[in-house]
Amino acid sequence: MIKEVLQKIENKQSKVGIVGMGYVGLPLAIRFNESGYNVIGLDIDETKITRLNKGQSYIAHLPSDPIAKMVKSGRFKATTDYSTAESCDALIICVPTPLTRQREPDMTFIVNTMESLKNHLRAGQILSLESTTYPGTTDEVLKPYADRKNLKIGENFFLVFSPEREDPGNPNFQTQTIPKVCGGYTVNCQKAGLALYGAVINKVVPVSSTRAAEMTKLLENIHRAVNIGLVNEMKMVCDRMGLDIHEIIRAAATKPFGFVPYYPGPGLGGHCIPIDPFYLTWKAREYGINTRFIELAGEVNTNMPHWVIGKVGEALNDRGKSIKGSKILVVGISYKKNVDDMRESPSVELMEILRHKKAEVQFSDYYFTTFPKMREHSFDLTSVDLTPDIIKKFDCILIATNHDKFDYQMIKEHAQLIIDTRGVYQEPSPKIVKA
To answer: What is the model's pTM?
Structure first.
């Protein structure tokens, strides 16, 4: 059957179902569609489905034009009806993998997806998981569903893990141009996965197994988390010594070898980097390994919002004020600049701490008119317009996310106090405190 599967992919006769129409699934759907494949977009969010079928985007950095073009092609349909999965020759799962309150892997979204798909799995399908997770998830969580259907993996059903590598808001890389790692459960699974992704991605990188592909993704993000932890710790050391960490990084980055610049901030954000280290530390315990180095970096990064608020308190105290009762404006609430993505945003933690300390907290962000609904956080707030008169009213402006659209010079001119967590301002000023 592998020959038939490969032939259908080559002839663009394969129908591709993508589960999860978010920051990963939607760009992937567009890429498969523009490559000539019929695509079904599956999601449980009725609002997303309605907007997609109207050719509208709901992601700030992703314009509506390619979605409208996809709809107009007649080769795309968005739906909440998971029974349509049975008509798909490939099913690609792009759903969240968060942490529980105990900082352990939460497989709820993957399990719920498989429960919705289980009656629609059939011979001839490729099932690929893209969600970042611990090594063994594909084999331990997805494979049993195929086994219960008496599907023969590697013979008439093909199981793959290929981690997503999207970088929302980065104009230098698109889905097509980012190399794609792919690992199959068997040799034939690998062939199917390489053919599927190779049809739409410029370069596909094979690895020996699904577990190797899962670990590859974790290494990529843990590498970043550890280095950010290092530079965040260096920031605290430099602050105590009266040095500007951003000046130090700029100077170090002039070395043409042996140094890669990482930048400090108010904490880690996004769906992957704050979460992935905990997936590995959890799984490593099964093998009797304590990942102390990784966990230490996690402690440093997790503590950063509290360190920033400490700097806010010191700066206000120097001006004869306290956090309690002060009017504080948090500028930027996305997890990184120029995106409308709130997942694990350190800005939210900053706002929570300030609220707990009885500050009068407001926020300003071009990407959000009101504070969005979140599973664990609730603020009944509307975004504040950044005008000179409004800025003057706040005791402190806390720059948490450095969107390019903000007028930082205007903020500087009219603010009483600025806490800069992103290195926006290079020139020293009595009203600017680096944090």
So the answer is: 0.91
